[in-house]
Amino acid sequence: MRRGRFEQAEGGTLFLDEIGDMPLELQTRLLRVLSDGHYYRVGGHSAIKSHVRVIAATHQNLEQRVAQGQFREDLFHRLNVIRLRLPALRERREDIAPLTRHFLQRSAQELGVESKRIAPAALQVLEQCPFPGNVRQLENLCHWLTVMAPAQTIQVKDLPDDLRSATTVDEASSAVSSTPLAMPAGTAPPSETSVQAGAMPSLAPGTAASDWEAGVEQAALALLRSGEGDVMHHLTQRFERAVIGAALAQTHGRRIEAAQRLGIGRNTITRKIQELGMED
């Protein structure tokens, strides 16, 4: 006789995904098991005691489903014992980078190929995406990239058109420019040592935003006229290094506080410090 899910999970955990989409008829059966702890095999007449822990998940608003008569209220209260909310991926963008690398490695293992890497510029595009399909959308994207990306390093041009059109990030290599970023008059250019020590000076308090923007524009024009490649990436790297260095200087090297002041996650600032070579 075929064993049902509760019997298969005896002594363990039964995970019910998308419980909010369960038909009302099945909701009634599940409620009966959760209420008295017994179930019947299909076609059976003897009650079987269940020793199973039930974990349910859903993307639905169950309170709203209850109000609409699409989910049983008594079942909702039976399930709503310990409630955990997993934030959407767009609410924890600092997780996108490690998840992307993990999914690329897993896809490569499943397909029996070498794991692909993702360029910083392409990763920046992903970090700006809303991901309405959450982690599953990112997982499917990584699987698609493992199959479709022509080179071992995934560039911005390899990403699907709908992702690229949703952002304004241009493709660039991972090389770091040695060309200094032009700074407004009266502001000393930061040295590499001061950056690593977290002592990057900020712009002078009285500096107008237009002056700072003009300095960046001059640096960009100088790089473009010199024929330097990857200008966007080079300037972005130096900008991030300066801003993070300034935040660390203001917070005396306290990364969590610096991340809060910058409005980014602590995982993001840790990753940026590593990528920009700012480790002590």
UniProtKB/TrEMBL annotation:
Q: Indicate the segments forming the Sigma-54 factor interaction domain, all copies.
A: 1-147
Biased composition range(s): Polar residues: 170-180
Report the PROSITE patterns cross-referenced here.
SIGMA54_INTERACT_2, SIGMA54_INTERACT_3, SIGMA54_INTERACT_4
Q: Name one GO cellular component term.
A: cytoplasm
UniProt keyword Transcription present:
yes
- SUPFAM superfamilies per the record? Homeodomain-like (SSF46689), P-loop containing nucleoside triphosphate hydrolases (SSF52540)
User: Which BP terms does GO give this entry?
Assistant: phosphorelay signal transduction system; regulation of DNA-templated transcription
Keyword list (alphabetical) reads:
Activator, ATP-binding, Cytoplasm, DNA-binding, Nucleotide-binding, Phosphoprotein, Repressor, Transcription, Transcription regulation, Two-component regulatory system
According to the UniProt entry, its GO molecular function terms are: ATP binding; sequence-specific DNA binding
Q: Where in the cell is it found?
A: Cytoplasm
Q: What main location does UniProt list?
A: cytoplasm
**Matching PANTHER family, A to Z?**
DNA-BINDING TRANSCRIPTIONAL REGULATOR NTRC, TRANSCRIPTIONAL REGULATORY PROTEIN
> What name has this protein been given in UniProt?
Nitrogen regulation protein NR(I)
